[in-house]
Amino acid sequence: MTRLAGKVAVVTGAASGIGEAIARRLVREGAFVAVCDLDGHRGPEVAAALEQEESGAQFFSLDVSQEEQVRSVLQEIADRYQKIDIMVNNAGIGKAGTVLEQTEAEWDAMMSVNAKGAFFGCKYAVRQMLMQKDRGSIINIASVAGMVGVLNRAGYCASKAAIVGLTKSVASDFAEAGIRVNAISPGTVDSPWIQKILAGQPEPEVARSQMEQRQPIGRMGTPEEIAHLVCFLASDEASFITGSNYVADGGLTAR
Ligand code: NAD
To answer: InterPro entries recorded for this chain (predicted)?
Structure first.
């Protein structure tokens, strides 16, 4: 599988879960992957495992909510590898709560990482892609929480809806320039994030079963199932697709 041979990809939040699966998949398809994450312990481990593959990977310490960090890390990657073909804005955080419980600090944190992080990622990826002969593809990981009112997730829903709007705006502004921008909205995916939430429940197995049954397909998604979609959207097979929001949710929003 070398659909992405010679491509340079950046994946944020690549030290865990969905981001790690995306990084793994893109490397297997022949892309070099910049593994970007806050986690300076797990991030280098993920990159080291992928370095064994032919196209390779490297860890970059990055907090996506800090504009100067996003600017300088993307600049460093472009200087070193001459281009950025694929930008995956995946890093995200979530705190539970209705508007009654959520604090301003929680709201600000989710907006900073989820919405502002994607904004900075788009901004500096577009800036670089406009300077390249072959432009590129940007993929923003939103959520079904950006489309429907997932219970008890006020700030998270708002931050993910912002990503869907941002995706459409950037796609419209730069379609003519040849840059494609799409979002993916997963339903519940069995990642360390969800595993941590379940471990904190009084009856984790009951909570897991409830989470699985919420999706008509009767199970959670896997990180790899989201990575397949990223791979498609990053490839030339998706050359006519921009400004779209792809839902991968086992039918959750179909009901
Ligand atoms: P995860 O917690 O397993 O992984 C998230 C990664 O992002 C971690 O490695 C973490 O260190 C990193 N990160 C957090 N804040 C960061 C920051 N400021 N800068 C850089 N890196 C940062 O989560 P996951 O389930 O793999 O989720 C990945 C993305 O998918 C998130 O955007 C999440 O909102 C979205 N999503 C997840 C699900 C799900 O059910 N798991 C569903 C819909 C959407």
So the answer is: NAD(P)-bd_dom_sf (IPR036291), Sc_DH/Rdtase_CS (IPR020904), SDR_DHRS6-like (IPR051122), SDR_fam (IPR002347)
156 counts as catalytic: yes
Residue range 166-224, pLDDT digits in tens: 999 999 999 999 999 999 999 999 999 999 999 999 999 999 999 999 999 999 999 99
Query: How much distance in Å is there from the Cα of 163 to the middle of ligand 1?
Result: 14
Mutation test residue for ligand 1: of 116, 193, 198, 215, the one with most atoms within 8 Å of CB? 193
Q: Which class would CATH give 8-192+223-254?
A: alpha beta
Ligand 1 contact via 141 beta carbon (within 6 Å): yes
Classify the complex by whether its ipTM is higher than 0.90, answering yes or no.
yes
Strands (E), the chain: 8-12, 32-37, 57-61, 86-89, 136-141, 179-186, 245-248
pLDDT tens across 127-141, in order?
999 999 999 999 999
- The alpha carbon of 92 and the centre of ligand 1 are apart by a number of angstroms equal to 4
Q: What is the pTM of this model?
A: 0.98
